[in-house]
């Protein structure tokens, strides 16, 4: 497939979908983007797409909006390690994905690029996760479970409908535009005198590489396959060292042990999730941090012909964006 001249996109008002939308419209692709709210409608219109009000679960309505598109990018989903409503997350991630793929088939669109997640890989602790990794059968969080089930459902639905489905599985997406989730670790390092951190591994993909990987999957991806999008795996101490070099001062966190994380952190996180559900702290988050992630994103480099940003560049652009947004406190 050549670069698409027209595309239908879900999730265009979010971080990944928004960057993908900007990349598509900048290259001349006509994009129709599903929206549910007036704010989402404004965001996608500002990025050059045609807003299409609709419902993720309305396959017939979606199909009417998809007709004539060369490809469907299904990016929408609930990305939350500590969801307040697990059933609602599963409905969006699993049933919403089935509906989008069914709609593409009804519309005569042959190719769908589906945004899965590296969290669905299910590698064992200490293992480097890849596309061929056999899932260990245990889930670190409700989100990891939801995305694993959703990915299975996506390929099953595509097979039933005769759709060429390519899944892309981003690791932790970082870059300008993100200040929540794992990006808060970097903010904490920059803003606190002695932040308390845990020595674990993080796998990171630059937001620009993530967007480019989606388009490359539409052009070069092999149907029925998934591609991990992950540019680097780095320990938290090494990440702190990179950030120190960028800001020109020695950042010196305090380190918490794994024993403390599991023995105290999980019970404390359980209480926090009960007392303040919106805190973003829950046992699944602690289990994910203790487990750590190291993913191999080289298949996408080879098969999709993408190149990853150096992690130093990602951190530098992210920190510059933090500053521009006033998120870094004066020291």
Automatic annotation (TrEMBL):
Domain NAD-dependent epimerase/dehydratase: from-to ranges: 8-227
Pfam family, one: Epimerase
GO cellular component: a single term: cytoplasm
GO function terms (MF aspect): aldehyde dehydrogenase (NAD+) activity
Gene3D superfamilies: NAD(P)-binding Rossmann-like Domain
Coiled-coil stretches noted in the UniProt entry, renumbered to this chain: none
UniProt cross-references to SUPFAM superfamilies, sorted A to Z: NAD(P)-binding Rossmann-fold domains
PANTHER family assigned to the protein according to its UniProt record, in alphabetical order: NAD(P)-BINDING DOMAIN-CONTAINING PROTEIN-RELATED, PROTEIN YEEZ
Stated name of the protein: NAD-dependent epimerase/dehydratase domain-containing protein
Source organism of the structure: hydrothermal vent metagenome
């Amino acid at each position: 497939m050549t670069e698409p001249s027209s595309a239908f996109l879900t999730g265009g008002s979010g971080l990944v979908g928004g960057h993908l939308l900007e990349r598509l419209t900048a290259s001349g692709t006509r994009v129709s983007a599903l929206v549910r709210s007036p704010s989402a409608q404004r965001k996608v219109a500002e990025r050059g797409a045609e807003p299409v009000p609709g419902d993720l679960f309305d396959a017939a309505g979606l199909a009417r909006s998809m007709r004539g598109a060369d490809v469907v990018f299904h990016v929408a989903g609930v990305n939350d390690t500590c969801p307040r409503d697990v059933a609602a997350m599963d409905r969006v991630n699993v049933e919403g994905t089935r509906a989008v793929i069914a709609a593409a088939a009804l519309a005569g669109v042959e190719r769908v690029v589906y945004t899965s997640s590296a969290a669905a890989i299910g590698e064992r602790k200490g293992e480097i996760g890849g596309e061929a990794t056999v899932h260990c059968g245990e889930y670190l969080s409700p989100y990891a479970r939801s995305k694993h089930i959703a990915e299975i459902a996506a390929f099953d639905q595509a097979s039933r409908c005769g759709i060429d489905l390519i899944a892309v599985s981003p690791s932790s997406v970082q870059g300008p535009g993100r200040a929540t989730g794992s990006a808060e670790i970097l903010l904490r390092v920059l803003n606190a005198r002695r932040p308390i951190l845990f020595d674990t591994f993080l796998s990171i993909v630059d937001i620009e590489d993530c967007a480019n990987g989606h388009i490359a999957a539409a052009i070069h991806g092999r149907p029925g396959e998934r591609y991990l999008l992950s540019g680097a795996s780095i320990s938290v101490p090494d990440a702190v060292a990179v950030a120190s070099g960028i800001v020109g001062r020695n950042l010196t966190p305090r380190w918490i042990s794994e024993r403390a994380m599991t023995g105290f952190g999980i019970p404390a996180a359980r209480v926090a999730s009960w007392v303040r559900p919106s805190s973003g702290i829950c046992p699944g988050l602690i289990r994910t941090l203790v487990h750590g992630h190291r993913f191999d994103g080289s298949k996408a480099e080879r098969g999709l012909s993408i190149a990853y940003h150096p992690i130093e560049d990602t951190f530098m652009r992210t920190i510059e964006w933090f500053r521009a947004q006033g998120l870094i406190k004066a020291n």
